[in-house]
Design a protein that fits this description.
Elements: H1 2-8, E1 12-15, E2 19-23, H2 28-49, E3 56-61, E4 69-72, E5 77-81, H3 97-112, H4 118-126, H5 138-149, H6 163-170, H7 178-183, H8 192-208, H9 212-220, H10 237-245, H11 249-263, E6 272-273, E7 280-287, E8 290-302, E9 305-316, E10 321-328, E11 337-339, E12 342-352, E13 362-372, E14 378-384, E15 388-391, E16 397-402, E17 409-413, E18 419-424, E19 427-433, E20 438-443, E21 450-455, E22 460-465, E23 471-478, E24 481-486, E25 493-498, E26 504-506, E27 513-518, E28 521-528, E29 531-538, E30 542-544, E31 564-565, H12 568-573, E32 579-586, E33 594-603, E34 609-617, E35 621-632, E36 635-642, E37 645-656, E38 661-674, E39 679-692, E40 695-702, E41 705-706, E42 716-717, E43 719-728, E44 732-742, E45 764-783, E46 788-803, E47 809-823, E48 828-839, E49 844-852
Parallel strand pairs: 2-3, 3-5
Antiparallel strand pairs: 1-2, 1-31, 4-5, 6-29, 7-8, 8-9, 9-10, 11-12, 12-13, 13-14, 15-16, 16-17, 17-18, 19-20, 20-21, 21-22, 23-24, 24-25, 25-26, 26-30, 27-28, 28-29, 32-33, 33-34, 34-35, 35-36, 36-37, 37-38, 38-39, 39-40, 39-41, 40-43, 41-42, 43-44, 44-45, 45-46, 46-47, 47-48, 48-49
Helix pairs in contact: 2-3, 3-5, 5-8, 9-10
Organism: candidate division WOR-3 bacterium RBG_13_43_14
Protein name: Bacterial surface antigen (D15) domain-containing protein
Length: 858
C-alpha cells in the first residue's frame, strides 16, 4: 500500500458531482477541456441512453501522436488520449477533438451500464458484470455512439462527413449480412462496426422514433440472464427488440438492407479506375509523369494472424505500371513531399517519457526520412512530434507540431538543430510551400479546418477559404493555384483555388481524394467496394461558389464548470472490486461433487494495478490471488499466490522501436516458491525480437536456479532457450520454432512437446518445429442462433524433430486443417485443429484440439 501511495502521487484529480478526472501533472488544461465538454453534453447523452451513471472516472493520457478513446463499462471508466485526430487523412468532420472523443466514450459508458429492475440490484451487489447492454454485437455498441456523436453538430461526426455515405453507395446492392458484420471478417474498411452500426442506428431511430433506442435499452436492461444470450440472441437482444418493434434483429437488419438497396445507388462513374488493389491510399504527390503515394493493406498469413503492409509506391502514368518505391515497418504519418529528386516522408515511431499508463510511459512520435529517388538511398533527418511539414525552395525544412497544454501549433524550422519560429492559436494539419506562398490547412477551436496563408515574419495566419466544412489534401497546380479536397454538404470532391483572386473551381463530381494534374489529366484516389484506388478524369474545371449559410452550434466554453480538487482517496476508491460474484463449479469429472466459492476482479482507473481473487472452500480453504502492477513504469510486476505456490515476476523493456531492426529487447526475472513451498526457483531471462515487417525473429534465454542455501529442497542449474522465425506473405506463412533445455537436476522431468507421440520427456532435449500455413479458402458463413461464424480455412504442412538426452532422434510429419471460429458476436475466438501425423515408427495418428485465440488481431 505504501508503494501505491507514492506511485499515485504522480496523478492529480479534479472532479464534479458527475465526473472524476485523473491526469498527470501539467495536464490541467487537457483535463479541463474534457471535463467542460463532458458536463455540457452529459444531458444529451443521458436523454439518448436513458441512463445517468455517476461518477464516471475519466483518465487523461498522453501517448504521443496517436488519437483514440476507450470505454470500460466493467470499471465504469474511460480513457481519453490528448492528441487530436488527423482530420485531413479521410477528411473527417471534427470541430473539437475533446468534445468528439469524450462524448463518444460517454455514450458507451451510459449505454452499456443501463440497467433496470432486478438487474440493477444484481449490479449493485455483484458489479457491472450483469449489465445486459454490454452483451451486444460490437456494431450495435459502436453504432449507437457514432449516431450520437453525429447529432451534436451538422459539421461533426462520421455520419455527417460523407465518407461513410459514399462507401454505402458502393455496397448498396451487396451489403454484408448480419452475421458477417457481427464478426467483422478481414476486409475493407477496418472500422466496419462504426460504419454499418452507425448507418443501422440512424435507420432504426428514423424508422421507429427518437425514443425507440431508449426503450430498447430499458427493456434489455431488465434481462439479468443476458450474459448467457451472446450464444443464443433469441433469448436476449432479439427478445427485447421484438418487444419494442415487433421484429428481432435479423428481421430489422433485413429491412435495413432492403431500404439501402431501394433508396441508395452508386452514381454512374465518369472516371477511369487505373489500379485495383483496394485498402488505403494517401499522400499522393507527382514528380514528372510519376505519382508517389503511401499504400496500406491488410493481409492474413494464418489463423487470426493479420498483418499490415505499409509501402510507398510509384505509378508511372506513361506505362500504366505500379511499382514499390520502398517498404516501411509502420504508418506514414504525414503527406509526402518531393524536392530536388528526393522524397521526404515521416514514419510512426515509439519514444520514452510519455505521460500515460496505457503503454507504460511510452508514446508515439514521428521520424522524418529523405529517400533519394535517383540513388535509392535513405537518410534519417530528425525525430519529433511532427503533425505537418513542408520544404521551402531553399531546401529549408519547416514543420508544425501541436502546442503542449494549449490549443494551437508551434512552427519549427531547420533539420539538425531546429528552432521554433512562431506559435499560433490555429491547429495546423498540413503545410505546403513554394517560392511565393506558405499555405496551411489549419483550424481554430470548435471549427473544422480552413485554407490559410502563413507569414512567418509577422507570425500571422490568415484564412483565405472559410467554410464550416473541411478543406485539406493540398497540392500546387502552379505557382499561384492549388488543388484541394473539401466535403461541402457531405460530398468529397476536388476543387481548384486561385490564390490571387480566390476564385474556386470544382473539378470532380463524385468522391475524390488527393488530386493532382499530369498532362491535362486529373488523377486522384477514389472509393470502391475494396477500398481506395487510383482514378483519372479529363481535367475540366467548373466555376463554383459556396453559398451555404453556416448553422451555429452552441459551444461548451460559454458555460463555465465549477470543479473541485480531488485527492488520494479518489484514487483509492477506484480499486473497489468491479466484479464480486459467488461461483460454484465441479471438482471432479463425474460432476458428483461441487465446490462453492467467491470471485473478485478490480483495478484502479489508470489500470496501473489489476487484481483478481478466487476463494473456495471444500474441507479446506483454497485461494488464487493475482496482482499486476505498473506503478514503476516501464517495470511491470506480477504476483500470484495459491496454497502451494507463490510467484513474483518482473519484466522491463530496455529498448522498443517500430522501425526495422531490433524492435524489442528486455529482461525478465521470476521467483517461484512451489511444491508446498519446498522448492524455490530464481530465473532471469532476456528476450529480443528482430522485425523486418512482415517477418520477424525472436529469441529468449532463461536460466532457472535453485539452491539449498535459500531453503530450496534441491540444488539446480538449468538452461532454456527458445527461438522462432516467422516469414509471412499475403495468404501464407512459414514458421520455424526451436526449443532447447538442459535441466538434469529437475525431479520433474521436462516434456518435449512433439506431435505424433504420446509423451516424450527428457532432462535434456532439442525440438525443432517447422510449419507452412496456407489459406485454402474463405467460408465466411454462420448462424445468428446459435451465434457462431466460420471465417477462413487454412491448411498446414509440418515437420517436427526432437533429440532427447540419449541422442535418440524422433521425428513426425503431417498435415493439419485449421478453421477460424468466432462465437458470441465475435467476442469468443478459437481455432479447432484436425491433424494427421506420421512418426518414425510409421504410426499414423489422427488428433483434434482447440487452440484459443485470445486477442482480436484486427
Amino acid at each position: 500500500m505504501i508503494l501505491l501511495i507514492f506511485a499515485w502521487f504522480d496523478w492529480q484529480v479534479i472532479k464534479t458531482d458527475n465526473f472524476t478526472i485523473f491526469h498527470k501533472p501539467g495536464y490541467q488544461w487537457e483535463a479541463n477541456e474534457f471535463l467542460i465538454n463532458l458536463e455540457y453534453y452529459r444531458n444529451a447523452a443521458r436523454e439518448m441512453t436513458g441512463n445517468d451513471a455517476r461518477p464516471v472516472y475519466v483518465v487523461v493520457e498522453d501517448i504521443g501522436s496517436y488519437s483514440n478513446g476507450i470505454a470500460d463499462p466493467f470499471l465504469g471508466k474511460m480513457q481519453v488520449f490528448t492528441y487530436p485526430d488527423n482530420i485531413t487523412e479521410l477528411m473527417s468532420l471534427q470541430q473539437s477533438w475533446h468534445r468528439a472523443v469524450a462524448y463518444h466514450e460517454l455514450i458507451h459508458i451510459l449505454h452499456m451500464t443501463r440497467t433496470s429492475g432486478l438487474t440493477r440490484g444484481l449490479n449493485s451487489c455483484f458489479g457491472n458484470i450483469f449489465s445486459p447492454n454490454m452483451y451486444a454485437p460490437m456494431w450495435w455498441i459502436e453504432g449507437i455512439a457514432v449516431y450520437g456523436e453525429s447529432q451534436i453538430s451538422p459539421y461533426e461526426g462520421r455520419l455527417n462527413d460523407g465518407y461513410y455515405d459514399r462507401y454505402m453507395k458502393t455496397r448498396a446492392k451487396s451489403l454484408p449480412g448480419l452475421i458477417e458484420i457481427s464478426n467483422e471478417p478481414l476486409r475493407f474498411p477496418v472500422d466496419q462496426s462504426y460504419l454499418y452500426g452507425g448507418q443501422f442506428t440512424q435507420y432504426f431511430i428514423e424508422t421507429y422514433g427518437q425514443n425507440s433506442l431508449n426503450d430498447h435499452l430499458r427493456i434489455y436492461g431488465h434481462y439479468f440472464w443476458a450474459p448467457l444470450t451472446v450464444i443464443l440472441p433469441v433469448f436476449g437482444i432479439d427478445m427485447s427488440m421484438r418487444k419494442r418493434t415487433g421484429k428481432d434483429f435479423p428481421t430489422l437488419y433485413r429491412y435495413f438492407r432492403q431500404a439501402i438497396a431501394d433508396n441508395i445507388s452508386e452514381p454512374e462513374r465518369q472516371d477511369h479506375q487505373i489500379t485495383s488493389r483496394g485498402w488505403y491510399i494517401g499522400s499522393m504527390i507527382a514528380r514528372g509523369h510519376d505519382i508517389h503515394y503511401a499504400r496500406k493493406s491488410l493481409f492474413k498469413a494464418g489463423p487470426f494472424d493479420v498483418f499490415a503492409s505499409h509501402r510507398i509506391n510509384k505509378y508511372d502514368t506513361r506505362n500504366a505500371e505500379e511499382q514499390i518505391t520502398l517498404k516501411t515497418n509502420s504508418l506514414v504519418t504525414t503527406p509526402l513531399r518531393i524536392l530536388d529528386n528526393k522524397l521526404y516522408y515521416t514514419m510512426r515511431e515509439i519514444k520514452r517519457g510519455a505521460a500515460n499508463s496505457y503503454i507504460q510511459g511510452f508514446g508515439y512520435t514521428s521520424r522524418l526520412y529523405c529517400f533519394d529517388l535517383l540513388t535509392n538511398k535513405k537518410e534519417f533527418i530528425l525525430e519529433h512530434d511532427i503533425r505537418a511539414f513542408c520544404l521551402q525552395s531553399n531546401s529549408r525544412l519547416l514543420f508544425a507540431c501541436d502546442r503542449k497544454h494549449a490549443f494551437g501549433s508551434e512552427l519549427w524550422r531547420g533539420q539538425i538543430l531546429p528552432e521554433k519560429i512562431m506559435e499560433t492559436d490555429f491547429l495546423i494539419y498540413e503545410l505546403i510551400a513554394n517560392d511565393k506562398y506558405l499555405i496551411a490547412v489549419a483550424a481554430r477551436p470548435y471549427e473544422n479546418s480552413d485554407i490559410c496563408l502563413i507569414d512567418t515574419v509577422t507570425g500571422r495566419i490568415e484564412p483565405i477559404m472559410i467554410t464550416p466544412w473541411n478543406e485539406g489534401q493540398l497540392y500546387f497546380k502552379n505557382e499561384s493555384t492549388i488543388l484541394y479536397i473539401a466535403n461541402y454538404r457531405g460530398q468529397h470532391d476536388a476543387y481548384e483555388l486561385n490564390l490571387i483572386d480566390q476564385t474556386v473551381y470544382r473539378i470532380t463530381n463524385d468522391f475524390a481524394h488527393w488530386p493532382l494534374i499530369i498532362d491535362n489529366q486529373l488523377y486522384f484516389t477514389g472509393l470502391n467496394e475494396m477500398g481506395f484506388d487510383l482514378y483519372r478524369l479529363p481535367y475540366q474545371p467548373q466555376p463554383f461558389a459556396f453559398h451555404e449559410k453556416e448553422i451555429i452550434v452552441d459551444r461548451p466554453v460559454q458555460t463555465p464548470v465549477q470543479t473541485r480538487p480531488g485527492n488520494f482517496w479518489d484514487l483509492l476508491a477506484t480499486l473497489e472490486p468491479a466484479a464480486r460474484v459467488p461461483v460454484i463449479y465441479p471438482v471432479n469429472e463425474g460432476l458428483t461433487s461441487w465446490q462453492p466459492g467467491f470471485f473478485m476482479f478490480g483495478a484502479d482507473a489508470m489500470l496501473e494495478n489489476i487484481y483478481t481473487a478466487l476463494l473456495t472452500y471444500n474441507n479446506s480453504l483454497y485461494y488464487e490471488l493475482n496482482w499486476r502492477s505498473n506503478i514503476f513504469m516501464p517495470l511491470s510486476v506480477n504476483f500470484n499466490a495459491s496454497p502451494d505456490l507463490v510467484k513474483l515476476f518482473f519484466s522491463y523493456p530496455l529498448h522498443i522501436q517500430l522501425r526495422p531492426g531490433i524492435n524489442y529487447f528486455g529482461f525478465l526475472i521470476d521467483f517461484r516458491s512451489f511444491d508446498d513451498f519446498n522448492r524455490k526457483e530464481f530465473a532471469p531471462s532476456i528476450y529480443m525480437r528482430f522485425d523486418q515487417s512482415p517477418h520477424y525473429f525472436f529469441i529468449q534465454a532463461r536460466l532457472p536456479y535453485e539452491r539449498q542455501t535459500w531453503y530450496s529442497n534441491i540444488d539446480r542449474s538449468a538452461q532454456q532457450l527458445i527461438a522462432g522465425l516467422k516469414l509471412r506473405a499475403n495468404t501464407r506463412s512459414f514458421y520455424l520454432l526451436s526449443y532447447f533445455h538442459n535441466d538434469p537436476d529437475n525431479p520433474d522431468m521436462p516434456r518435449i512437446p512433439i506431435r505424433g507421440y504420446d509423451e516424450l520427456r527428457s532432462y535434456q532435449g532439442l525440438l525443432i518445429h517447422n510449419a507452412l500455413d496456407q489459406k485454402l479458402f474463405s467460408i465466411r458463413q454462420g448462424l445468428w442462433n446459435p451465434n457462431i461464424y466460420i471465417e477462413d480455412l487454412f491448411g498446414s504442412v509440418f515437420f517436427d524433430a526432437a533429440i532427447d538426452q540419449d541422442q535418440e532422434l524422433y521425428w513426425s510429419t503431417g498435415i493439419e486443417l485449421k478453421a477460424e471460429i468466432k462465437a458470441g458476436f465475435g467476442y469468443i475466438k478459437f481455432i479447432p485443429i484436425i491433424g494427421l501425423s506420421l512418426n518414425r515408427n510409421r504410426e499414423i495418428r489422427v488428433y483434434f484440439n482447440i487452440q484459443p485465440a485470445t486477442e482480436n488481431p484486427y
